[in-house]
Design a protein that fits this description.
81 residues, little secondary structure, Pectate Lyase C-like, 0% strand
Length: 81
């Protein structure tokens, strides 16, 4: 899923756990309830995305952009540990 463009999509209640979404674009998407646990979201764009109830447990969000991430690194939401 590296580099995938899903901007403007509505995807809810899905499981994307354990996948690599490096450089993916989820801008302006509704991602309500998705499970991204144990995934790689390095440099992923979440600008204006609805992230309500999204599971980011043990997910690498380094350099993810879009509120609340905005270049996220060294923050509890961005750790891959």
């Amino acid at each position: 899923m590296i580099g995938t463009n899903l901007s403007g999509s509505t995807i809810s209640e899905g499981k994307f756990d354990g996948l690599d979404f490096t450089d993916a674009d989820f801008s302006s998407s509704d991602l309500t309830g998705l499970d991204f646990s144990y995934s790689i979201l390095l440099n992923t764009d979440f600008t204006n995305a609805n992230l309500m109830d999204v599971n980011f447990e043990n997910t690498n969000l380094d350099y993810a952009i879009g509120k609340p991430f905005i270049g996220c690194i060294n923050h509890f939401m961005c750790t891959s540990e």
